[in-house]
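Protein in question quoted for reference:
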Amino acid sequence: MLNSPKSTLSGLTLAAPASQPQATAGSAPRGPAHGPPAKTILVVDDDLVIQKTVSAKLTRAGYRVLTATDGPAAITIVRVHRPDLILLDFNFPPDVSHGGVPSWDGLDILYWLRNLKGAEHTRFMLITGEQPAGLQNHKLADASTPVFQKPLDFDQLLPAIAQTLAA
C-alpha cells in the first residue's frame, strides 16, 4: 500500500515527492486494438500544471506517462524506465534548496540524457514558454530536436509525437 504514488493510512495521505518517477493511474495503456504496451513518454517540467495537463492528454492518446520536475529526477527515471520519448522543458527556476544557484536548463538536461547509457534510442522534444527569438542565443545539441512553444497546441504536438515514435 505504501509503494503506490499516493496511499492512505489511518486518514494520513502519503504522496510521493513530485521529483519521483510517477506513472499515471491505472494499468499500463495498450497500443491500438489492445496490442503491445504503449510507448513511454517522460514529461520533464517544473510546472506541475503543465505536467498534469500534458500527462492527461498523452494518457488519453494511449501513452504511458512518467514525470519529473528537474534534471536529476529525469536522469534517474531514464536509467530505470528507459522512456521512448522525452518532452523536456527548456527553462527551470534557480535551485532555491541549494542557495539559489542556477539550475540546469533544458539543454544541460538534454546533454546529460543523450549521453546516458541505455538512452541511445530515446527521442527528445523541447517545450518552452520563450519566444522563438529568445532561443536563438542557445544552440541545440541537435538541430533536429523539435521545439514546441507554450501554451502547447496539442493538435500539433500529438501528431508530432506519433510521427516521431513511428520513425
Remarks:
- The chain is about 30% helix and 20% strand.
- The CA atoms of residues 115 and 155 lie 31 Å apart.
